[in-house]
Amino acid sequence: MLRNCFGIFNRGNFQFLHKRVFDTFGGFVTLVFAMILAATAPASAQIGQPYRLNDKQVDQILKRIEKQSDRFRSSLDSALDKSRFNGSSREDDINAFVKEFYQETKRLRDRFESHKSTAPDVELVLQRAARIDGFMRRYPLTTRAQEDWSVLRSYLDQLAQAYNVRWQWSGYGGPAAYPGPPAGYPVTGTVVSNLPYRVTDREVDQILKRIEKQSDKFRSALDSALDKSRFDGTRQEDNINQFVKNFYNDTKRLRDRFEEHKSTAADVQSVLDRASIIDEFMRRNRFKKKDAVNDWARLREDLNDLANVYGVDWRWR
Questions:
Q1: Measured distance CA(60)–CA(77) in Å, rounded
Q2: Is the pLDDT of residue 136 over 80?
Q3: Dihedral sign, Cα of residue 304, residue 306, residue 309, residue 315
Q4: What CA–CA distance (Å, rounded) separates 198 from 185?
Q5: HEC string of 187-249?
Q6: Which of 35, 40, 284, 295 could form a disulfide with 14 if both were Cys (CB 3.0 to 4.6 A apart)?
C-alpha cells in the first residue's frame, strides 16, 4: 500500500538535487536527494511570474485596444491636418498603416470570438503597429497624439504577454526604420508557447481534469507494482511514495489557484519538478507489470500539454 510518509522533504522554496548510486551487481538503485535554494530554479519558476490571463481578461485587453485605437485615430487625424504632412505622401503612408492595423485587430477579435486566435495573429497586429510606431517616433506630432499612441502601445504589450509572444518595439531599428518593414518582413516577436492557438479556460480545465484522473490511475498501478517488487517495505518505497504525495499536493495547489484565476507558470513549474523526480524513478526501475509504466507515460503527455499552455519551456531529463 502507498504510505503517507511525512517530513522527508520540506515543501518550501526549494527544489531537489538528486543523484543515483547504482549497484552494478544486484541492480539495486538508491535515490539520494539534497535541497538547494530556489535561486537556481529555471527562470520560468521565479517569483513574479504573471498570472495566466483568463478569457475575460483577454477580452478586456482587446476592448481597451479597440477603444484606444479609435481615440488615437481621432487625435492622429487632427494632428495630421495641422501638420506639414497634410495632403502629402507621408499622410497617405501613416493612414495606410493605421488601416492595416485596424484590419488585423478586427481579424484577431473575430478569431478570438471563435476560439481560434493564435500567437501569429497577435504578431501580425504587432507588426502593423510597429510601422505606426516608426512614424510616431520619427515624426512627433501633437502631445495628445503621442500620448494616445503611448497608451495604445502599453495595451499591445499586454496583448503580447497574454499570447506568450516576446515583443520588442526596438526590433525594427528605431526611428530611422520608418516607414517600417515591408510586407513579408520577418516578425520581431518570438512565440513562447508551442500550441497552435490560445487555449481557453475550459480547455485548461480539461487538461487539469485529465491530469487528476490519470494521476489517480497511475497511483493505483504504482501501488500494485511496488507491492510485487523488490522495493516492497524498503526505504526506496517510502521515497517514491513521498514523491507521489508531493506531486499530488502541488497538482492540487495548481487546481486551487486556477479556480481563483491566480495560476502562474511558476505553479506549473513546481508540478513538473515534482513529476521529474517520479520520472527518474520510473525510468531507472523496471516492473514486471507494465500498467504503472504505461499509466505514467500517459500522464507525462498530459503534463507536456500543461507546460505548453503556461508557456513553460520543459524538457524531461
A1: 26
A2: yes
A3: negative
A4: 24
A5: CCCEECCCCCCCCCHHHHHHHHHHHHHHHHHHHHHHHHHHHCCCCCCCHHHHHHHHHHHHHHH
A6: 35
Strands (E), 57-204: 165-166, 190-191
Sorted by sequence, the CB contacts under 8 Å of residue 144 that are 6+ apart come out as 75, 78, 79
The residue count of the chain comes to 317
Residue with cell 494521476: 215
For 24-52, how does the pLDDT look when each residue is reduced to its tens digit (9 = 90+)?
A: 333 333 334 333 333 333 433 333 345 67
For 167-198, the pLDDT digits (tens) are 888 744 333 344 444 344 333 444 444 455 67
Number of H helices and E strands in the chain, helices first, is 8, 4
Mean pLDDT of 239-255: 96
Do residues 155 and 122 lie in contact, with contact meaning Cβ atoms separated by under 8 Å? no
Q: If we measure between CA atoms, which residue out of 121, 136, 120 comes closest to residue 169?
A: 136
Tally of CB atoms within 10 A around 41: 18
Least confident stretch, 3-7, 244-248, 284-288: 3-7
Mean per-residue pLDDT, 297-312: 91
Q: What is the percent of the chain where pLDDT is above 90?
A: 59
What 284-292 contacts at long range (C-beta under 8 Å, 24+ apart), as own/partner pairs, is 284/20, 284/29, 285/29, 285/229, 285/231, 287/225, 287/228, 287/229, 288/225, 288/228, 288/229, 289/221, 289/224, 289/225, 289/228, 291/221, 291/224, 291/225, 292/218, 292/221, 292/222, 292/224, 292/225
Grid cell at residue 316: 524531461
Name residues whose C-beta falls within 8 Å of residue 231's C-beta, 6 or more positions apart in sequence: 237, 240, 285
